[in-house]
Amino acid sequence: MSGNTLYRRLIRTLAAVSALLMSVSLATSCAGSSEPEKTLDGRTVLRYQGSTGQVTFPELAENLGYFDRIALNWVGDTTSGPQDIQSAATGDTEFGGAFNGAIVKLAAANSPIQSVLSYYGADKETFNGFYVLDDSPIRTARDLIGKKVAMNTLGAHAEFVIREWLAQQGLSKDEIAQVELTVVPPVNTEQALRQGQIDVGTLGSVFRQTAVQRGGLRELFTDESLYGTFSYGTYVLRKDFIAKNKDDVADFVQGVARAIRWTQTVPRDEVIARYKDIITNRGRNENPDLVDYWRSSSVAPAGVIADKEFQIWIDWLKRNEDLGDDIQPSDIYTNEFNPYSNGTYPPNSDPDGRALQETK
Length: 360
Fold this sequence. Notes:
By secondary structure, the protein is an alpha/beta fold. It has helices spanning 3-31, 57-64, 81-89, 100-108, 157-168, 173-176, 186-194, 205-214, 223-227, 239-244, 246-265, 268-281, 308-319; strands at 44-50, 70-77, 95-99, 113-122, 128-133, 148-151, 180-183, 200-204, 217-222, 230-238.
């Protein structure tokens, strides 16, 4: 595929995304008019989307009994991060999560959402890698010109990361445009790579671990090798919901922050056992065995957000002429409600705010 063809495709994609973001912004003008539902005991109900075979941090927080004012209502499983935050922005759910670059674009389109917690990222144990076959001639970024790189969706985490890596490796914008980015579902990526249908496959979580175990693949680079330990995605709520329900939002954030901290301070086997118990008992006809591949929370302690986790993608979008100069990280996120950031708990403490050395 020529650079001009890919450029035209990207322009068409951005136009379609802009239209979608405009519809989201219009829809949010009506989203805040209805009051959230209440349980019989007076708790505020937060609707959300889950993920098959996985336990989200809010689900873990509820299971651990960390919520006092809110209750969760699962309305189905999300198909992607952009879809999840769109549902939150339009009022179909109260919160959703996605890659921070996608959140920047939504916020830049005047969608009234705000990030409150990090929920996924990369570290030495949990990361997304870009893989080739062992005998592939591809060894450098320049070798990717004219080659097919597969990822689960365009306009999200994998695309931002691969294009940033290519730029850092010295490729020009025209050369980067000649790398063919193609969508392949994660469940099919390994097979497509081994059969030669693609040249590079993006693999994460269970798909990465099982593919590597089978052998025959070589790691080109990872998102962790690009930025080190780094939080990539956040949970968002609508600003109007936050303004009207501050105590409930504070309860949601403190509970999820404590749940994240719980996974960061207890043995891995304990996390896996509880995740399996949650999946088995919630009755969604899921396979709990995938939880065995869980390695780490992959985010900063208690999900506290840092400026750099948004500034990187703001700068990326500005360089690629997709964003103006009037947006700052502080416009997009807040740590106001996180007890590990607002002074309620010491930053390096356990789920109950006790210094870690005192709990040993």
